[in-house]
Recover the amino acids of this structure.
């Protein structure tokens, strides 16, 4: 019996283990952290052996194949040992795709993935299609393949998930944009990250579709260099407008969301969804949590939760959509960020920056000069969310917006960006 070892027992790992067990493999799950109670129960209910708090090498190195959590870097010592003995290491998405003939609509990019993925899923649901939502959002693809039978899957893919995909093929691949992110995971070499993103086109043929933002300079450069097999669908403000509604009629506001809506519309057109369904969906879609989410208006000040902005470019889009003077809360686990990308927008839109993190040194190094150059510009240093919200409350004036758009990962103070956003909203509502 072939032995499958799953490293990491979160959503993707647990789902992969259940599917592997169902397909008759000898399955073992190992997580060096603590497996949460719901996933423990799921593994126990399905008779899957597991361990947590450690990696027992003799139970892992004898695997015929390893399914690796996206969060485990390829540089991890255990992964290096597996690679040295030529053990196959794949992702949950790669494994799950072996057991379904469903059409795969896959979305990646540095920013806008969740919004675009959710919008496409919404359009397909409105069209009455049998569709599942997977990847970074929704239930794991593997668990859905094990327990459900969808005709389509809309999948949000991070660069980490793409790293260990080899035979997987997207029927429709969408690349929204590429800006520096996760460079700490890619030897601080931007091209390595770019290459990871373009893996979404891997194995595509003329029968498949590649939808991409033609005005992104990085994508444009790579498209001139690469010879891709898919049918190409560029979009952007310089391309023919695919939207069946006026931009002011879109439920999602902001320049970046016009682009996201274009990508979703083209995907729906490729799938031959009726135009009236696409139109209605674009006008009624409600967006996603923690992405430019209005929390409350307190003392005439609007509070916006953009906790999902875990990189600088995502914060750029948030600031670009601000129409009032802004107090910006940022900070967290730095991933090799270049904050200069938002310099102009910070100067134009913000009168106060509030740093919220255990290590704000890089933020001070970059932004302190702003306060030196402009006596009306304020920088406030905090090391927790409660103090950051309180500082923003006192710094904001009636008619202002307080924007949480951290630019950074959440793992210094929070379990996830969702946890960060939830705590922010609770603190705002308690004002």
């Amino acid at each position: 019996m072939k032995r499958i070892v799953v490293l990491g027992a979160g959503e993707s790992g647990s789902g992969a283990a259940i599917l592997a067990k169902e397909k008759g493999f000898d399955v073992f799950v190992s997580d060096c952290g603590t497996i949460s109670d719901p996933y423990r129960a799921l593994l126990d209910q399905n008779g899957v052996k597991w361990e947590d708090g450690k990696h027992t090498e003799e139970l892992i190195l004898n695997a015929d194949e390893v399914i690796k959590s996206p969060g485990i870097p390829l540089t991890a010592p255990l992964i290096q040992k597996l690679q040295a003995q030529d053990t196959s290491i794949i992702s949950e998405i790669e494994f799950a795709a072996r057991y379904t003939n469903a059409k795969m609509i896959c979305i990646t990019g540095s920013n806008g993935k969740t919004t675009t993925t959710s919008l496409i899923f919404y359009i397909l649901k409105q069209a009455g299609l049998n569709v599942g939502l997977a990847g970074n959002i929704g239930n794991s693809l593997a668990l859905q393949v094990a327990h459900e039978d969808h005709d389509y899957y809309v999948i949000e893919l991070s660069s980490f998930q793409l790293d260990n995909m080899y035979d997987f093929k997207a029927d429709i691949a969408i690349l929204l944009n590429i800006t520096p992110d996760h460079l700490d995971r890619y030897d601080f070499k931007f091209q390595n990250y770019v290459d990871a993103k373009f893996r979404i086109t891997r194995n595509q043929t003329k029968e498949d579709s590649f939808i991409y933002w033609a005005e992104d300079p990085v994508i444009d450069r790579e498209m001139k260099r690469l010879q891709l097999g898919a049918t190409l669908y560029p979009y952007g403000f310089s391309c023919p407008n695919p939207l069946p509604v006026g931009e002011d009629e879109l439920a999602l506001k902001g320049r970046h969301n016009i682009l996201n809506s274009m990508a979703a519309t083209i995907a729906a057109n490729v799938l031959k969804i009726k135009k009236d369904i696409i139109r209605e969906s674009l006008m009624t879609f409600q967006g996603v949590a923690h992405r430019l989410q209005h929390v409350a208006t307190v003392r005439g000040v609007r509070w916006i939760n953009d906790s999902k902005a875990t990189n600088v470019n995502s914060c750029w889009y948030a600031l670009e959509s601000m129409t009032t003077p802004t107090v910006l809360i940022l900070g967290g686990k730095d991933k090799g960020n270049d904050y200069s990308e938002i310099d102009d927008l910070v100067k134009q839109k913000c009168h106060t920056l509030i740093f919220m993190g255990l290590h704000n040194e890089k933020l001070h190094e970059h932004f302190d000069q702003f306060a030196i150059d402009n006596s009306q510009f304020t920088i406030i240093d905090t090391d927790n969310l409660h103090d950051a919200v309180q500082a923003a409350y006192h710094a904001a004036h009636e008619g202002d917006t307080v924007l949480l758009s951290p630019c950074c990962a959440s793992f210094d103070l929070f379990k996830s960006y969702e946890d960060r956003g939830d705590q922010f909203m609770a603190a705002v509502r308690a004002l």
